[in-house]
Amino acid sequence: MSKAPAAPAAMTRRDYAWHRMDTEKNLMVINSILLFEGPVDMERLVSTIGHRLPNYPRFTQKVIRLRGRPHWVEDDQFDITQHIKLERMERDVPRDELQNHLTRLAHLPLERNRPMWHMTVLDRVNGGHAIVFRVHHCITDGLGLVHVLNHLTDDNGLHGRTPSPVGHPHRAVAHNPVCSAVVRAVSALKVAAHVARLSVLWPDAQTQFKTPMTGAKQLVWLPPLEMDRVRAMSKRMGVTLNDVWVAAVSGALRTYLGERGQKPDGRALRAAVTFNLREKGNAFQLGNEFGLVAVDLPTNEEAPCERLRLSSSRMTAIKRSHQPRATMAFLSIAGCLPTALQHFALNLFTSKGSVVLTNIEGPSSRRYLAGSRLTDLICWVPQAGKLGVGLAFISYAGQIQLALFVDTDLVPDPDRLMQLTYDAFEELELATQDVEAPQPVSEPALPGMVITAS
């Protein structure tokens, strides 16, 4: 028996802000790729996704305006086969060629007259097959997307042609009580204060990362890091995995600029870092539940251990502030503004930073989709406004996957920056081997910043 279609639901102002944020140079699409062992069974794959993905109404709904307000409305013409397409490769595709293929797909906007997601299945990739999963940010953030991936997949490859419903939601109810509570809790005065402090910040240091963008972008990634190595480092130093990530990126950016003749010991670069505000148990509701924090990256510090200490103390100070909730509330306000004014405000704020950083906690154990074992999961963070450099890591089954998404006018050699980021983890590991965990250092919270993805 088919499920009854979901009733139209008012779109949150924050999700509507993401819906209107696409520009020619920056699409608000979360790009990810899932790599699998063995050949693809398209019939089984489409059957599995067709049974499970519609449990989340946002994946069968489109956005239209009703009574002057944006709503999620069921797409009467929804056809799962229009969202899952097979591209047959003439031969097995190596990594470099796959990166170029993904880059081409990443430039394609999603159709706005249907549910805003798409899967491209590549049948011959690295001895197996791959799925390029593209989801518009207005549907969900990184944590919500991981929840969807967990429920599309199984913990073994034994399910039959008709997938078992065990452990999967019958029909996810998409509502957002946390959002409304947060908006009510954060007073207009606090939001105004954070926005005002940000608006008077000097624009970020004028480096190669702040040159005008053309919209020509590239996706890059490297083989994964072992989670145990990074976790051991964080425990040894008494910091979080995210602190290690921020410190490693800072070292990579410092070296990259230095190699191009720019002085890395001057002003620190500023980054927009995502900050999750969602309870994991509410991830099935989808939508966007994260704030943003402005962090002065210790790119002007030469010593790796000191970069890590500074990264940790600055992130700790921000966690204790109202900054993440204030920036989340600001996005809700942005969704009430006329489109031109929203873009103006976002361009103003994004001029204050140079890069976007995010980290995503993915599935902790191996997953299987339609009987095929998922070997690697990679996700890229989109950028908006005047930001054109995005770095992300996502954990999966004991490994950490680094990924870079950049405008090539800002970063002409993305592979070099990606390799430097990988090298920076190894530099930190070596430098911290014999260091005792330091006492926490308090620093004042930094002003808030808006724009990125989770």
Note down, in words, how this protein is organized:
- Pathway: Glycerolipid metabolism; triacylglycerol biosynthesis; Lipid metabolism.
- GO terms for molecular function: diacylglycerol O-acyltransferase activity.
- It is an enzyme of class 2 (transferase).
- With 454 residues, the protein is of the alpha+beta class.
- It folds into two domains: 9-152, Chloramphenicol acetyltransferase-like domain (Chloramphenicol Acetyltransferase); 177-360 and 382-431, Nonribosomal peptide synthetase, condensation domain (Chloramphenicol Acetyltransferase).
- It is 33% helix and 22% strand.
- It has twelve helices and 16 strands.
- The strands form three sheets. Strands 8, 9, 10, 11, 12, 15 and 16 form a seven-stranded mixed beta sheet that branches. A six-stranded mixed beta sheet has the order 5-6-7-2-14-13, with helices on both faces.
- Helix 1 packs across helix 10, helix 6 (188-199) crosses helix 10 and helix 8 packs across helix 9 (304-319).
- The protein starts with 8 loop residues before the first strand and ends in a 23-residue tail after the last helix.
